[in-house]
């Protein structure tokens, strides 16, 4: 057992979405050659984390790991001591429509590519666009994953989707595939704190920990960095107060926040041509880094920031000790 902590834990991750995956989801031509900004953004994010002495989780897309041009950037993340998670192979935000065999093949292919590029075999998964299903969770559990981190318990998913597709040129079929991007209204009723999913009666399936991307307790609106940066483009002071309120509510509600970062939180319009449709892209990378530093700094003043693997392990230990207490009646 580790020593008692003075602060509750929070986890932090990066979804390493690449330029092509945004273009693909948005229906923009040219994504098929997999344009990449990883060589620019990865060193920036690693420097940011090194300055804060933080080790966090990077969810990597298998397709990127499979390409020689991204190898150096991806290997440097593992070399810096961060956890590597699986963010699917093709980055299709409609994994909930996959059959069991299709999903298994997708995951296995991503695992092989990611391990090849980083030397780490992932034990955590996050579905693109917060897509998940009973099938995805069962397959992950069977493949020995410790945790899944694919839920965003918010009511505003449909709003975010409408915003994203305002400028998209997609066929009717492509719109159906992307129907659940950012989730459904009812997702707002999903748990906001991590929980354990047990697959009963399935030999070898066991259980898996679900770690939702935390939304503001009670109101269930997102407060991860991309949302803050969007608010900051309206009013930086508003963004700071919004984040403070969200953290205060987490502490009151006893929620261990799990927050995420995206490459676009570190890239300005000067770095990523063709992504101007994305909210907050009018803010320069320098301004963005300032806001991200401020937010991560205030998260750290109240919580100990860890990678998701550690958060999952501690939750599982806590769950086991609760079961033991119940069995022995010593609670
Ligand atoms: Zn993604």
C-alpha end-to-end distance: 19 Å
Q: What composes the largest sheet? A: 5 strands, parallel
Taking pLDDT < 50 over at least 5 consecutive residues as the criterion, the unreliable ranges are: none
* Total beta-strand segments: 9
The fraction of residues in strands falls at: 5-15%
**Succession of helices and strands:** EHHEHHEHEHEHHEEHHEHEH
Small-molecule binders: zinc ion
Structural class: alpha/beta
With helices defined by DSSP (H or I, 4 residues minimum), what is the helix count? 12
What is the helix content? 40-55%
Rg of Cα set: 19 Å
Rounded mean pLDDT is 85
Shape: globular
Description:
The protein is α/β, with parallel strands linked by helices and 331 residues long. The chain is built from twelve helices and nine strands. The strands form two sheets. Strands 1, 2, 3, 8 and 9 form a five-stranded parallel beta sheet that branches. Helix 6 links the parallel strand 4 and strand 5. Helix 9 packs across helix 11. The protein is globular and about 55 Å long. The mean pLDDT is 85. The structure holds zinc ion. The site of zinc ion has 5 residues, from loops.
Helix and strand arrangement:
Blueprint: E1 9-15, H1 19-26, H2 38-52, E2 57-60, H3 62-65, H4 71-79, E3 83-86, H5 100-118, E4 124-125, H6 134-142, E5 147-148, H7 157-165, H8 172-177, E6 195-198, E7 207-210, H9 225-234, H10 236-253, E8 258-261, H11 285-302, E9 304-306, H12 308-328
Parallel strand pairs: 1-2, 1-8, 1-9, 2-3, 4-5, 5-7
Antiparallel strand pairs: 6-7
The structure holds zinc ion.
């Amino acid at each position: 057992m580790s020593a008692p902590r003075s602060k509750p834990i929070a986890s932090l991750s990066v979804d390493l979405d690449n330029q092509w995956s945004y273009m693909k989801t948005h229906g923009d031509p040219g994504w098929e050659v997999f344009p990449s900004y990883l060589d620019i953004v990865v060193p920036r994010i690693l420097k940011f984390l090194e300055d804060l002495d933080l080790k966090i989780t990077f969810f990597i897309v298998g397709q990127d790991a499979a390409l020689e041009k991204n190898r150096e950037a991806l290997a440097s993340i593992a070399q810096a001591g961060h956890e590597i998670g699986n963010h699917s192979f093709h980055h299709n935000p409609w994994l909930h429509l996959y059959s069991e065999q299709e999903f298994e093949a997708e995951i296995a292919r991503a695992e092989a590519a990611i391990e090849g590029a980083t030397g780490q075999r992932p034990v955590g998964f996050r579905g693109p666009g917060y897509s998940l299903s009973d099938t995805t969770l069962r397959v992950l559990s069977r493949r020995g994953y410790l945790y899944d981190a694919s839920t965003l318990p918010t009511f505003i998913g449909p709003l975010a989707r409408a915003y994203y597709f305002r400028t998209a040129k997609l066929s009717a079929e492509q719109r159906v595939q992307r129907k659940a991007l950012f989730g459904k209204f009812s997702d707002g009723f999903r748990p906001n704190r991590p929980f354990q999913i047990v697959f009963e009666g399935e030999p070898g399936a066991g259980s898996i920990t679900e770690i939702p991307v935390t939304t503001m307790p009670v109101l269930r609106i997102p407060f991860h960095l991309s949302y803050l940066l969007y608010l900051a483009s309206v009013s930086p002071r508003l963004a700071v107060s919004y984040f403070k309120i969200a953290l205060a509510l987490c502490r009151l509600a006893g929620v261990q926040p799990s927050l995420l970062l995206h490459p676009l939180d570190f890239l300005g319009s000067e770095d990523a041509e063709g992504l101007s449709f994305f909210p907050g892209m009018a803010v320069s990378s320098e301004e963005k880094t300032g806001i991200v530093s401020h937010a991560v700094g205030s998260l750290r003043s109240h919580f100990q920031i860890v990678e998701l693997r550690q958060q999952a392990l501690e939750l599982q230990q806590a769950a086991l000790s609760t079961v033991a207490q119940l069995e022995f009646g010593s609670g």
